[in-house]
UniProtKB/TrEMBL annotation:
Domain PAS residues, every copy: 32-57
Official protein name in the record: PAS domain S-box-containing protein
Domain PPM-type phosphatase: 347-568
PANTHER family referenced in this protein's UniProt entry, alphabetically: STAGE II SPORULATION PROTEIN E (PTHR43156:SF2), STAGE II SPORULATION PROTEIN E-RELATED (PTHR43156)
GO molecular function terms noted in the UniProt entry: phosphatase activity
Lineage: Bacteria, Bacillati, Actinomycetota, Actinomycetes, Pseudonocardiales
The organism's place on the tree of life at top rank: Bacteria
Pfam families: GAF, PAS_9, SpoIIE
Residue span(s) of domain PAC: 82-136
Cited PROSITE patterns: PAC, PAS, PPM_2
Record key words, sorted: Hydrolase
Keyword Hydrolase: yes
Amino acid sequence: MDRGERQLEGLGERAVIATHRSFTITDPRQVDNPLVWVNPSFTALTGYPAEEVVGRNCRFLQGRNTDRVAVSRVADALRQHRPITEVLLNYRRDGTAFWNEIAISPVFDSTGDLVNFVGVQGDVTERVVVEQERRAALAEAEEARGQLRMLAEATTQMTAALGVVDACERLARSLVPALADLCAVDVLDVPGRGVPRRLVVAARDAVDEERLRDLGRLRNYHVGGGSDTGHVLAGDRPVLVPDLPERGADRYPEDPAAAGVYDTLRLRSVMVVPVRARGRVLGALTLLTQHPYGRRYGPRDLHLATDIAGRAGLAIDNARLYEADHAAAVTLQRSLLPAVSDVDGVQVAARYLVGVDGNQVGGDWYDVLDLPDGALGLAIGDVAGHDLRAAAAMGQLRGVLRSYAWDGGHPGSVLDRCDQLVQGLEMAAMATAVYARVEPPDPDGARILCYANAGHPAPLLVEPDGTLVRLDEQRSPMIGAIRGLGRRAGPGRAEAVRRCLPGTLLLLYTDGLTDVAGEDADGRTSLLERTLAQLPLDAAADDVVERVLEVCSPRRLRDDVALLAVRLDR
Protein backbone atom coordinates (compact mmCIF):
# COMPACT_ATOMS: atom_id res chain seq x y z
CA MET A 1 0.00 0.00 0.00
CA ASP A 2 1.56 3.32 -1.02
CA ARG A 3 1.60 6.46 1.04
CA GLY A 4 -1.52 7.97 -0.64
CA GLU A 5 -3.61 4.89 0.04
CA ARG A 6 -2.48 4.81 3.70
CA GLN A 7 -3.46 8.47 4.06
CA LEU A 8 -6.92 7.79 2.58
CA GLU A 9 -7.40 4.78 4.87
CA GLY A 10 -6.42 6.82 7.91
CA LEU A 11 -8.74 9.61 6.84
CA GLY A 12 -11.61 7.11 6.55
CA GLU A 13 -10.91 5.72 10.02
CA ARG A 14 -10.85 9.20 11.53
CA ALA A 15 -14.12 10.03 9.74
CA VAL A 16 -15.84 6.89 11.10
CA ILE A 17 -14.57 7.73 14.58
CA ALA A 18 -15.68 11.37 14.37
CA THR A 19 -19.10 10.85 12.76
CA HIS A 20 -22.33 11.11 14.70
CA ARG A 21 -23.44 7.78 13.26
CA SER A 22 -22.80 4.70 15.37
CA PHE A 23 -20.54 2.14 13.71
CA THR A 24 -19.72 -1.39 14.84
CA ILE A 25 -17.68 -4.26 13.43
CA THR A 26 -18.14 -7.92 14.29
CA ASP A 27 -16.05 -10.97 13.51
CA PRO A 28 -18.16 -13.88 12.28
CA ARG A 29 -15.10 -16.14 12.33
CA GLN A 30 -15.19 -16.08 16.13
CA VAL A 31 -17.73 -17.91 18.27
CA ASP A 32 -21.07 -16.04 18.49
CA ASN A 33 -19.99 -13.32 16.06
CA PRO A 34 -18.77 -10.82 18.74
CA LEU A 35 -18.13 -7.11 18.42
CA VAL A 36 -14.47 -6.35 17.73
CA TRP A 37 -14.70 -2.57 17.38
CA VAL A 38 -17.20 0.25 18.10
CA ASN A 39 -16.85 3.97 17.50
CA PRO A 40 -17.47 6.69 20.13
CA SER A 41 -20.93 7.42 18.70
CA PHE A 42 -21.97 3.87 19.66
CA THR A 43 -20.96 4.61 23.23
CA ALA A 44 -22.89 7.90 23.15
CA LEU A 45 -25.95 6.15 21.68
CA THR A 46 -26.07 3.15 24.01
CA GLY A 47 -24.20 4.28 27.12
CA TYR A 48 -21.93 1.24 26.92
CA PRO A 49 -18.15 1.94 26.88
CA ALA A 50 -16.12 0.02 24.34
CA GLU A 51 -14.36 -2.13 26.95
CA GLU A 52 -17.75 -3.52 28.13
CA VAL A 53 -18.99 -4.57 24.70
CA VAL A 54 -16.00 -5.70 22.66
CA GLY A 55 -15.99 -9.49 22.71
CA ARG A 56 -19.80 -9.74 23.21
CA ASN A 57 -22.58 -10.35 20.70
CA CYS A 58 -24.63 -7.18 20.29
CA ARG A 59 -27.85 -8.92 21.39
CA PHE A 60 -27.22 -7.39 24.84
CA LEU A 61 -29.06 -4.34 23.44
CA GLN A 62 -32.30 -6.37 23.23
CA GLY A 63 -34.93 -6.48 25.96
CA ARG A 64 -38.30 -7.91 26.91
CA ASN A 65 -40.26 -5.88 24.34
CA THR A 66 -37.90 -6.35 21.41
CA ASP A 67 -39.74 -7.82 18.43
CA ARG A 68 -38.57 -11.44 18.18
CA VAL A 69 -39.78 -11.76 14.61
CA ALA A 70 -37.57 -8.85 13.54
CA VAL A 71 -34.63 -10.38 15.44
CA SER A 72 -35.20 -13.63 13.55
CA ARG A 73 -35.09 -11.76 10.24
CA VAL A 74 -31.70 -10.26 11.21
CA ALA A 75 -30.35 -13.68 12.22
CA ASP A 76 -31.49 -15.21 8.92
CA ALA A 77 -29.74 -12.45 6.95
CA LEU A 78 -26.48 -12.99 8.89
CA ARG A 79 -26.60 -16.73 8.22
CA GLN A 80 -27.15 -16.07 4.53
CA HIS A 81 -24.34 -13.43 4.41
CA ARG A 82 -26.64 -10.75 2.95
CA PRO A 83 -27.24 -7.13 4.00
CA ILE A 84 -30.31 -6.14 6.00
CA THR A 85 -31.88 -3.05 7.53
CA GLU A 86 -34.29 -3.34 10.46
CA VAL A 87 -35.78 -1.12 13.17
CA LEU A 88 -35.57 -2.75 16.60
CA LEU A 89 -36.59 -1.65 20.06
CA ASN A 90 -33.27 -1.67 21.93
CA TYR A 91 -32.25 -0.71 25.48
CA ARG A 92 -29.43 1.54 26.67
CA ARG A 93 -27.12 0.70 29.55
CA ASP A 94 -29.39 2.63 31.96
CA GLY A 95 -32.42 0.59 30.85
CA THR A 96 -34.14 3.27 28.79
CA ALA A 97 -35.62 2.07 25.50
CA PHE A 98 -35.03 3.58 22.08
CA TRP A 99 -35.86 2.67 18.52
CA ASN A 100 -32.66 1.64 16.75
CA GLU A 101 -32.42 1.52 12.97
CA ILE A 102 -29.62 -0.92 12.15
CA ALA A 103 -28.08 -1.50 8.75
CA ILE A 104 -25.77 -4.54 8.60
CA SER A 105 -23.54 -5.36 5.62
CA PRO A 106 -21.17 -8.30 5.12
CA VAL A 107 -17.50 -7.66 4.25
CA PHE A 108 -15.61 -10.18 2.09
CA ASP A 109 -11.85 -10.49 1.42
CA SER A 110 -10.24 -10.72 -2.01
CA THR A 111 -10.90 -14.47 -2.12
CA GLY A 112 -14.61 -14.05 -1.38
CA ASP A 113 -14.48 -15.25 2.23
CA LEU A 114 -16.60 -13.45 4.84
CA VAL A 115 -14.34 -11.60 7.27
CA ASN A 116 -16.58 -9.06 9.03
CA PHE A 117 -20.04 -7.55 9.44
CA VAL A 118 -20.27 -3.76 9.58
CA GLY A 119 -23.21 -2.29 11.41
CA VAL A 120 -24.50 1.27 11.31
CA GLN A 121 -26.98 2.28 14.00
CA GLY A 122 -29.18 5.35 14.39
CA ASP A 123 -31.71 6.52 16.98
CA VAL A 124 -35.01 6.87 15.10
CA THR A 125 -37.24 7.01 18.17
CA GLU A 126 -38.80 10.32 17.23
CA ARG A 127 -39.61 9.09 13.73
CA VAL A 128 -41.13 5.84 15.00
CA VAL A 129 -43.19 7.60 17.67
CA VAL A 130 -44.57 10.04 15.11
CA GLU A 131 -45.43 7.14 12.79
CA GLN A 132 -47.07 5.20 15.60
CA GLU A 133 -49.09 8.25 16.58
CA ARG A 134 -50.14 8.68 12.97
CA ARG A 135 -51.19 5.06 12.73
CA ALA A 136 -53.02 5.31 16.04
CA ALA A 137 -54.85 8.40 14.82
CA LEU A 138 -55.77 6.65 11.57
CA ALA A 139 -56.93 3.58 13.48
CA GLU A 140 -58.97 5.76 15.82
CA ALA A 141 -60.52 7.59 12.89
CA GLU A 142 -61.30 4.30 11.15
CA GLU A 143 -62.83 2.94 14.35
CA ALA A 144 -64.95 6.08 14.63
CA ARG A 145 -66.06 5.67 11.02
CA GLY A 146 -66.85 2.04 11.70
CA GLN A 147 -68.94 2.99 14.71
CA LEU A 148 -70.80 5.60 12.68
CA ARG A 149 -71.46 3.02 9.97
CA MET A 150 -72.71 0.56 12.57
CA LEU A 151 -74.89 3.24 14.15
CA ALA A 152 -76.31 4.22 10.76
CA GLU A 153 -76.92 0.59 9.79
CA ALA A 154 -78.67 -0.21 13.06
CA THR A 155 -80.80 2.93 12.77
CA THR A 156 -81.74 2.18 9.16
CA GLN A 157 -82.65 -1.40 10.00
CA MET A 158 -84.80 -0.43 12.98
CA THR A 159 -86.52 2.42 11.14
CA ALA A 160 -87.84 -0.07 8.58
CA ALA A 161 -89.40 -2.26 11.28
CA LEU A 162 -93.19 -2.37 11.68
CA GLY A 163 -93.44 -4.25 14.96
CA VAL A 164 -91.65 -4.48 18.30
CA VAL A 165 -90.27 -7.96 17.68
CA ASP A 166 -89.21 -6.97 14.17
CA ALA A 167 -87.39 -3.87 15.51
CA CYS A 168 -85.59 -5.92 18.18
CA GLU A 169 -84.67 -8.61 15.68
CA ARG A 170 -83.20 -6.05 13.28
CA LEU A 171 -81.28 -4.41 16.14
CA ALA A 172 -79.73 -7.65 17.33
CA ARG A 173 -78.77 -8.82 13.84
CA SER A 174 -77.09 -5.50 13.09
CA LEU A 175 -74.88 -5.77 16.20
CA VAL A 176 -73.76 -9.41 15.84
CA PRO A 177 -70.95 -9.93 15.02
CA ALA A 178 -70.02 -6.26 14.39
CA LEU A 179 -70.07 -5.28 18.07
CA ALA A 180 -70.88 -8.45 20.00
CA ASP A 181 -70.69 -12.22 19.84
CA LEU A 182 -74.01 -12.47 21.68
CA CYS A 183 -76.90 -10.03 21.97
CA ALA A 184 -80.15 -10.14 23.95
CA VAL A 185 -83.02 -7.65 23.96
CA ASP A 186 -85.35 -7.70 26.97
CA VAL A 187 -88.52 -5.61 26.69
CA LEU A 188 -90.94 -4.69 29.48
CA ASP A 189 -94.59 -5.48 28.81
CA VAL A 190 -95.45 -2.10 30.35
CA PRO A 191 -92.97 0.76 29.78
CA GLY A 192 -91.23 1.81 33.00
CA ARG A 193 -92.46 -1.23 34.91
CA GLY A 194 -93.96 -4.64 34.35
CA VAL A 195 -92.38 -7.97 33.51
CA PRO A 196 -89.47 -8.17 31.05
CA ARG A 197 -89.59 -10.62 28.16
CA ARG A 198 -86.49 -11.76 26.32
CA LEU A 199 -87.91 -11.01 22.88
CA VAL A 200 -84.82 -11.59 20.77
CA VAL A 201 -81.40 -13.20 21.04
CA ALA A 202 -78.70 -13.33 18.39
CA ALA A 203 -75.34 -15.10 18.44
CA ARG A 204 -72.34 -15.62 16.21
CA ASP A 205 -72.88 -19.34 16.80
CA ALA A 206 -76.56 -20.34 16.46
CA VAL A 207 -76.18 -22.98 19.19
CA ASP A 208 -75.52 -20.23 21.73
CA GLU A 209 -78.84 -18.49 21.05
CA GLU A 210 -80.86 -21.10 22.94
CA ARG A 211 -78.26 -21.11 25.71
CA LEU A 212 -78.64 -17.37 26.12
CA ARG A 213 -82.42 -17.80 26.27
CA ASP A 214 -81.97 -20.49 28.92
CA LEU A 215 -79.78 -18.17 30.96
CA GLY A 216 -82.48 -15.49 30.81
CA ARG A 217 -85.13 -17.97 31.98
CA LEU A 218 -82.96 -19.25 34.82
CA ARG A 219 -82.04 -15.78 36.05
CA ASN A 220 -85.71 -14.64 35.87
CA TYR A 221 -84.85 -10.97 35.43
CA HIS A 222 -87.25 -8.44 36.95
CA VAL A 223 -87.22 -4.70 37.50
CA GLY A 224 -84.86 -3.77 40.31
CA GLY A 225 -83.88 -7.40 40.89
CA GLY A 226 -80.48 -8.56 42.02
CA SER A 227 -78.87 -8.62 38.59
CA ASP A 228 -77.26 -6.21 36.18
CA THR A 229 -80.26 -6.48 33.88
CA GLY A 230 -82.71 -5.91 36.74
CA HIS A 231 -80.94 -2.75 37.86
CA VAL A 232 -80.79 -1.39 34.32
CA LEU A 233 -84.52 -2.10 33.84
CA ALA A 234 -85.15 -0.10 37.01
CA GLY A 235 -83.51 2.91 35.40
CA ASP A 236 -80.02 2.61 36.88
CA ARG A 237 -76.86 3.51 34.97
CA PRO A 238 -75.53 1.24 32.22
CA VAL A 239 -73.35 -1.67 33.34
CA LEU A 240 -69.90 -2.42 31.94
CA VAL A 241 -67.94 -5.48 33.05
CA PRO A 242 -64.71 -5.58 31.01
CA ASP A 243 -63.58 -8.94 32.43
CA LEU A 244 -66.20 -11.47 33.46
CA PRO A 245 -65.23 -14.37 35.74
CA GLU A 246 -64.08 -17.39 33.79
CA ARG A 247 -66.06 -19.79 36.00
CA GLY A 248 -69.83 -19.75 36.24
CA ALA A 249 -69.60 -20.61 39.94
CA ASP A 250 -67.88 -17.26 40.52
CA ARG A 251 -70.51 -15.37 38.54
CA TYR A 252 -73.55 -17.13 40.00
CA PRO A 253 -72.41 -18.83 43.22
CA GLU A 254 -76.01 -19.26 44.42
CA ASP A 255 -77.38 -20.61 41.13
CA PRO A 256 -75.67 -23.83 39.90
CA ALA A 257 -77.99 -24.21 36.91
CA ALA A 258 -77.25 -20.72 35.62
CA ALA A 259 -73.56 -21.25 36.35
CA GLY A 260 -73.60 -24.35 34.15
CA VAL A 261 -75.13 -22.48 31.22
CA TYR A 262 -72.68 -19.61 31.80
CA ASP A 263 -69.75 -22.03 31.48
CA THR A 264 -70.98 -23.26 28.09
CA LEU A 265 -71.15 -19.69 26.76
CA ARG A 266 -67.46 -18.90 27.46
CA LEU A 267 -68.23 -15.27 28.25
CA ARG A 268 -65.49 -12.66 28.43
CA SER A 269 -67.01 -9.16 28.61
CA VAL A 270 -70.52 -7.67 28.94
CA MET A 271 -72.41 -4.41 28.60
CA VAL A 272 -76.03 -3.91 29.70
CA VAL A 273 -77.62 -0.61 28.71
CA PRO A 274 -81.19 0.68 29.15
CA VAL A 275 -83.47 1.05 26.14
CA ARG A 276 -85.29 4.33 26.76
CA ALA A 277 -87.81 6.47 24.92
CA ARG A 278 -89.71 9.56 26.01
CA GLY A 279 -88.34 9.37 29.53
CA ARG A 280 -89.34 5.74 30.14
CA VAL A 281 -87.32 2.55 30.27
CA LEU A 282 -88.69 0.14 27.69
CA GLY A 283 -86.16 -2.63 28.20
CA ALA A 284 -82.48 -3.54 28.25
CA LEU A 285 -79.89 -4.29 25.58
CA THR A 286 -77.25 -6.85 26.59
CA LEU A 287 -74.07 -7.26 24.55
CA LEU A 288 -71.51 -9.97 25.30
CA THR A 289 -68.22 -11.23 23.90
CA GLN A 290 -66.78 -14.72 24.18
CA HIS A 291 -63.42 -16.34 24.70
CA PRO A 292 -61.01 -16.77 23.06
CA TYR A 293 -61.29 -14.05 20.41
CA GLY A 294 -63.94 -11.68 21.75
CA ARG A 295 -63.02 -8.06 22.41
CA ARG A 296 -62.64 -6.58 25.87
CA TYR A 297 -65.27 -3.86 26.21
CA GLY A 298 -64.23 -0.40 27.37
CA PRO A 299 -65.82 3.02 27.97
CA ARG A 300 -65.90 3.88 24.25
CA ASP A 301 -67.83 0.69 23.51
CA LEU A 302 -70.27 1.54 26.31
CA HIS A 303 -70.81 5.00 24.87
CA LEU A 304 -71.58 3.50 21.45
CA ALA A 305 -73.93 0.89 22.92
CA THR A 306 -75.78 3.57 24.89
CA ASP A 307 -76.24 5.64 21.73
CA ILE A 308 -77.54 2.62 19.82
CA ALA A 309 -79.92 1.71 22.67
CA GLY A 310 -81.30 5.25 22.66
CA ARG A 311 -82.13 4.99 18.98
CA ALA A 312 -83.54 1.52 19.55
CA GLY A 313 -85.82 2.94 22.23
CA LEU A 314 -87.42 5.35 19.77
CA ALA A 315 -87.80 2.60 17.16
CA ILE A 316 -89.37 0.21 19.68
CA ASP A 317 -91.70 2.89 21.07
CA ASN A 318 -92.78 3.84 17.57
CA ALA A 319 -93.33 0.16 16.80
CA ARG A 320 -95.52 -0.13 19.92
CA LEU A 321 -97.60 2.81 18.74
CA TYR A 322 -97.77 1.31 15.27
CA GLU A 323 -98.96 -2.03 16.62
CA ALA A 324 -101.64 -0.32 18.73
CA ASP A 325 -102.80 1.72 15.72
CA HIS A 326 -102.63 -1.37 13.54
CA ALA A 327 -104.81 -3.37 15.93
CA ALA A 328 -107.33 -0.53 16.15
CA ALA A 329 -107.33 -0.15 12.36
CA VAL A 330 -107.84 -3.86 11.77
CA THR A 331 -110.69 -3.89 14.29
CA LEU A 332 -112.29 -0.91 12.54
CA GLN A 333 -111.78 -2.44 9.12
CA ARG A 334 -113.27 -5.78 10.07
CA SER A 335 -116.19 -4.13 11.84
CA LEU A 336 -117.18 -2.64 8.48
CA LEU A 337 -117.18 -6.03 6.77
CA PRO A 338 -119.99 -8.59 7.07
CA ALA A 339 -119.72 -12.06 8.51
CA VAL A 340 -120.72 -14.20 5.54
CA SER A 341 -122.43 -17.56 5.72
CA ASP A 342 -123.98 -19.96 3.25
CA VAL A 343 -127.48 -19.22 2.02
CA ASP A 344 -129.95 -21.67 0.64
CA GLY A 345 -128.35 -23.51 -2.28
CA VAL A 346 -125.19 -21.36 -2.28
CA GLN A 347 -121.79 -21.74 -0.61
CA VAL A 348 -120.11 -18.46 0.28
CA ALA A 349 -116.58 -17.80 1.59
CA ALA A 350 -114.69 -14.52 2.02
CA ARG A 351 -111.27 -13.39 3.21
CA TYR A 352 -109.81 -9.99 3.97
CA LEU A 353 -106.03 -9.46 4.27
CA VAL A 354 -104.66 -6.21 5.64
CA GLY A 355 -101.73 -4.66 3.73
CA VAL A 356 -98.63 -3.30 5.43
CA ASP A 357 -98.52 0.16 3.82
CA GLY A 358 -100.36 3.29 4.82
CA ASN A 359 -102.26 3.44 8.11
CA GLN A 360 -103.56 -0.12 7.77
CA VAL A 361 -107.07 1.23 7.10
CA GLY A 362 -108.15 0.82 3.53
CA GLY A 363 -111.13 1.08 1.27
CA ASP A 364 -111.56 -2.55 0.16
CA TRP A 365 -114.85 -4.20 0.99
CA TYR A 366 -117.17 -7.05 0.06
CA ASP A 367 -120.78 -7.83 0.85
CA VAL A 368 -123.26 -10.70 0.55
CA LEU A 369 -126.98 -9.90 0.74
CA ASP A 370 -129.80 -12.45 1.04
CA LEU A 371 -132.35 -10.13 -0.58
CA PRO A 372 -136.06 -10.18 0.34
CA ASP A 373 -137.12 -11.05 -3.21
CA GLY A 374 -135.15 -14.32 -3.05
CA ALA A 375 -132.15 -13.12 -5.04
CA LEU A 376 -128.59 -13.06 -3.72
CA GLY A 377 -126.71 -9.77 -3.90
CA LEU A 378 -122.90 -9.84 -4.24
CA ALA A 379 -120.69 -6.77 -4.01
CA ILE A 380 -117.00 -6.05 -3.94
CA GLY A 381 -115.23 -2.72 -4.18
CA ASP A 382 -112.13 -0.66 -3.53
CA VAL A 383 -112.07 3.02 -2.55
CA ALA A 384 -108.93 4.85 -3.64
CA GLY A 385 -106.56 5.48 -0.73
CA HIS A 386 -105.25 3.78 2.38
CA ASP A 387 -106.31 6.02 5.21
CA LEU A 388 -109.22 6.84 7.49
CA ARG A 389 -110.84 8.96 4.78
CA ALA A 390 -110.86 5.99 2.41
CA ALA A 391 -112.31 3.77 5.15
CA ALA A 392 -115.02 6.34 5.89
CA ALA A 393 -115.91 6.59 2.20
CA MET A 394 -115.97 2.81 1.97
CA GLY A 395 -118.39 2.63 4.91
CA GLN A 396 -120.69 5.17 3.29
CA LEU A 397 -120.62 3.46 -0.10
CA ARG A 398 -121.21 0.04 1.37
CA GLY A 399 -124.17 1.33 3.37
CA VAL A 400 -125.75 3.04 0.38
CA LEU A 401 -125.16 0.04 -1.87
CA ARG A 402 -126.80 -2.27 0.68
CA SER A 403 -129.79 0.07 0.93
CA TYR A 404 -130.28 0.37 -2.83
CA ALA A 405 -129.72 -3.35 -3.36
CA TRP A 406 -132.27 -4.18 -0.63
CA ASP A 407 -134.83 -2.14 -2.53
CA GLY A 408 -134.40 -4.54 -5.45
CA GLY A 409 -132.45 -2.21 -7.70
CA HIS A 410 -130.72 -3.61 -10.75
CA PRO A 411 -126.90 -3.70 -10.61
CA GLY A 412 -126.40 -0.77 -13.01
CA SER A 413 -128.80 1.52 -11.19
CA VAL A 414 -127.32 0.58 -7.81
CA LEU A 415 -123.87 1.64 -8.94
CA ASP A 416 -125.26 4.82 -10.48
CA ARG A 417 -126.87 5.80 -7.20
CA CYS A 418 -123.57 5.14 -5.42
CA ASP A 419 -121.98 7.49 -7.96
CA GLN A 420 -124.60 10.13 -7.07
CA LEU A 421 -123.60 9.83 -3.42
CA VAL A 422 -119.92 10.39 -4.19
CA GLN A 423 -120.65 13.45 -6.30
CA GLY A 424 -123.50 14.83 -4.23
CA LEU A 425 -121.51 14.75 -1.00
CA GLU A 426 -118.40 15.91 -2.90
CA MET A 427 -116.39 13.01 -1.55
CA ALA A 428 -112.81 13.20 -2.84
CA ALA A 429 -112.41 9.45 -3.12
CA MET A 430 -113.11 7.47 -6.26
CA ALA A 431 -113.95 3.79 -6.11
CA THR A 432 -114.17 0.67 -8.23
CA ALA A 433 -117.00 -1.76 -7.60
CA VAL A 434 -118.85 -4.77 -8.93
CA TYR A 435 -122.45 -5.45 -7.95
CA ALA A 436 -124.22 -8.65 -9.05
CA ARG A 437 -127.61 -10.24 -8.50
CA VAL A 438 -127.94 -14.01 -8.56
CA GLU A 439 -131.60 -14.81 -9.17
CA PRO A 440 -133.41 -17.80 -7.60
CA PRO A 441 -132.99 -21.07 -9.53
CA ASP A 442 -135.32 -21.92 -12.38
CA PRO A 443 -136.93 -25.40 -12.68
CA ASP A 444 -133.68 -26.75 -14.16
CA GLY A 445 -131.66 -25.43 -11.21
CA ALA A 446 -129.94 -22.75 -13.29
CA ARG A 447 -129.63 -19.18 -12.04
CA ILE A 448 -129.44 -15.89 -13.87
CA LEU A 449 -126.42 -13.76 -12.97
CA CYS A 450 -126.77 -10.04 -13.71
CA TYR A 451 -123.88 -7.73 -12.92
CA ALA A 452 -122.43 -4.27 -13.50
CA ASN A 453 -118.77 -3.32 -13.21
CA ALA A 454 -117.51 0.20 -12.42
CA GLY A 455 -113.80 -0.03 -13.27
CA HIS A 456 -113.12 -3.06 -11.05
CA PRO A 457 -111.00 -6.15 -11.92
CA ALA A 458 -113.20 -8.57 -13.85
CA PRO A 459 -114.72 -11.38 -11.73
CA LEU A 460 -113.90 -14.93 -12.76
CA LEU A 461 -116.45 -17.68 -13.37
CA VAL A 462 -115.76 -21.41 -13.66
CA GLU A 463 -118.52 -23.40 -15.32
CA PRO A 464 -119.40 -26.94 -14.18
CA ASP A 465 -117.35 -28.43 -17.04
CA GLY A 466 -114.24 -26.48 -15.95
CA THR A 467 -114.43 -23.71 -18.54
CA LEU A 468 -113.07 -20.46 -17.09
CA VAL A 469 -114.77 -17.21 -18.13
CA ARG A 470 -113.58 -13.68 -17.42
CA LEU A 471 -116.67 -11.53 -16.75
CA ASP A 472 -115.44 -8.39 -18.46
CA GLU A 473 -118.49 -7.38 -20.52
CA GLN A 474 -120.12 -3.98 -20.24
CA ARG A 475 -117.51 -2.34 -18.03
CA SER A 476 -118.06 1.31 -17.09
CA PRO A 477 -115.96 4.09 -15.49
CA MET A 478 -115.06 4.15 -11.82
CA ILE A 479 -117.51 5.63 -9.35
CA GLY A 480 -116.75 9.35 -9.00
CA ALA A 481 -114.47 9.42 -12.04
CA ILE A 482 -116.76 11.42 -14.38
CA ARG A 483 -118.75 14.37 -13.10
CA GLY A 484 -122.47 14.12 -13.80
CA LEU A 485 -122.39 10.44 -14.83
CA GLY A 486 -124.32 9.38 -11.77
CA ARG A 487 -127.02 12.01 -12.33
CA ARG A 488 -127.93 11.08 -15.88
CA ALA A 489 -131.53 10.18 -16.70
CA GLY A 490 -132.66 6.89 -18.16
CA PRO A 491 -131.34 3.39 -17.52
CA GLY A 492 -128.41 2.84 -15.21
CA ARG A 493 -124.97 1.64 -16.11
CA ALA A 494 -124.69 -1.12 -18.65
CA GLU A 495 -125.27 -4.60 -17.29
CA ALA A 496 -124.27 -8.07 -18.44
CA VAL A 497 -126.32 -11.23 -17.98
CA ARG A 498 -125.21 -14.84 -17.84
CA ARG A 499 -127.03 -18.10 -17.15
CA CYS A 500 -125.23 -20.22 -14.55
CA LEU A 501 -125.77 -23.93 -14.20
CA PRO A 502 -125.58 -25.73 -10.85
CA GLY A 503 -121.97 -26.26 -9.84
CA THR A 504 -120.80 -22.86 -11.18
CA LEU A 505 -118.08 -21.09 -9.19
CA LEU A 506 -117.84 -17.29 -9.04
CA LEU A 507 -114.77 -15.45 -7.69
CA LEU A 508 -114.67 -11.70 -6.97
CA TYR A 509 -111.45 -10.02 -5.79
CA THR A 510 -109.71 -6.65 -5.37
CA ASP A 511 -106.56 -5.53 -7.15
CA GLY A 512 -104.30 -6.08 -4.13
CA LEU A 513 -104.07 -9.65 -5.41
CA THR A 514 -102.95 -8.80 -8.94
CA ASP A 515 -101.48 -5.25 -8.99
CA VAL A 516 -98.15 -5.65 -7.20
CA ALA A 517 -95.33 -3.12 -7.50
CA GLY A 518 -92.47 -4.49 -9.60
CA GLU A 519 -94.52 -7.38 -11.02
CA ASP A 520 -96.49 -7.80 -14.22
CA ALA A 521 -100.23 -7.38 -13.56
CA ASP A 522 -101.20 -9.53 -16.55
CA GLY A 523 -98.88 -12.27 -15.35
CA ARG A 524 -100.40 -12.22 -11.87
CA THR A 525 -103.92 -12.28 -13.35
CA SER A 526 -102.92 -15.30 -15.42
CA LEU A 527 -101.58 -17.00 -12.29
CA LEU A 528 -104.92 -16.40 -10.58
CA GLU A 529 -106.83 -17.83 -13.51
CA ARG A 530 -104.57 -20.92 -13.73
CA THR A 531 -104.94 -21.52 -10.00
CA LEU A 532 -108.71 -21.35 -10.26
CA ALA A 533 -108.82 -23.60 -13.32
CA GLN A 534 -106.70 -26.28 -11.63
CA LEU A 535 -109.01 -26.63 -8.62
CA PRO A 536 -111.29 -29.67 -8.39
CA LEU A 537 -114.62 -28.96 -10.06
CA ASP A 538 -116.45 -29.60 -6.79
CA ALA A 539 -114.06 -27.65 -4.53
CA ALA A 540 -115.88 -25.99 -1.63
CA ALA A 541 -115.94 -22.20 -1.50
CA ASP A 542 -113.73 -22.18 1.60
CA ASP A 543 -111.15 -24.39 -0.11
CA VAL A 544 -111.19 -22.08 -3.13
CA VAL A 545 -110.28 -18.93 -1.19
CA GLU A 546 -107.62 -20.75 0.84
CA ARG A 547 -105.94 -22.16 -2.26
CA VAL A 548 -106.07 -18.85 -4.12
CA LEU A 549 -104.45 -17.01 -1.23
CA GLU A 550 -101.84 -19.74 -0.78
CA VAL A 551 -100.71 -19.53 -4.39
CA CYS A 552 -101.42 -15.93 -5.38
CA SER A 553 -100.76 -13.78 -2.30
CA PRO A 554 -97.86 -11.35 -2.89
CA ARG A 555 -94.64 -12.04 -1.00
CA ARG A 556 -95.02 -8.65 0.66
CA LEU A 557 -98.64 -7.65 1.02
CA ARG A 558 -98.56 -3.88 0.46
CA ASP A 559 -102.22 -3.42 -0.47
CA ASP A 560 -105.35 -4.84 1.13
CA VAL A 561 -106.92 -7.90 -0.48
CA ALA A 562 -110.62 -8.77 -0.42
CA LEU A 563 -111.71 -12.12 -1.85
CA LEU A 564 -115.23 -13.51 -2.25
CA ALA A 565 -116.00 -17.00 -3.58
CA VAL A 566 -119.53 -18.22 -4.36
CA ARG A 567 -120.35 -21.82 -5.31
CA LEU A 568 -123.83 -22.47 -6.77
CA ASP A 569 -124.70 -25.94 -5.52
CA ARG A 570 -125.71 -28.61 -7.98
